[in-house]
């Protein structure tokens, strides 16, 4: 990768699960590089949702490298997820036609509740399914499958944890790490955000800032998708040996189910 920038640049891994991200430094300049990013990144940059894309270059081996401005800043603290600007940026993302059009051009299909329960069936192993709260959650998903249907499909981030929200030193807010982007019910993102970070008494107010009324149908869809995401996370954590996180997920199931 050095020949793209010159030998004077120091390139080091930026961490992350994929191992495709790097930091390049030279003479006071700093870039965030990523290998084989989706073309979706260009639209995210144009919409002001991620830090500005500077260039895209193809290497001799076919890899595509993208470079973005390196922004000094920090991730949001969990308590900051209650802020109105989080709701506004989430609303901007969910209502963006350019984002939706690009994902459709890339061949992304709509992810509906039927597809989700089929995926859960494939992923959960016998030991996980033996847990009583897992059984109760799966039973709930099937019993409310038709009720969880929704006609509006938009671009969802899919992992709206606070550590994916970047606040720059210039007070600009971004949502990064779009590898899990999907076309789905907005309740996929809204449910995980509200259940994880917002007091139930504040849901109606937060959703008003987002631009949506808090209805019984939305509440059901959010609960449905949070249970589905939690089941998949439990299995993933189990396979990775992350037992503390797996047990936290099981506790979340028992909290959400009533």
UniProtKB/TrEMBL annotation:
The keyword Transferase applies. It comes from the Bacteria. Keywords: Transferase. Pfam families: APH. InterPro entries: Aminoglycoside_PTrfase, CcrZ_PhaseVar_Mediator, Kinase-like_dom_sf. Residues 14-215 form the Aminoglycoside phosphotransferase domain. This is Phosphotransferase. The keyword Magnesium does not apply. GO terms for molecular function: transferase activity.
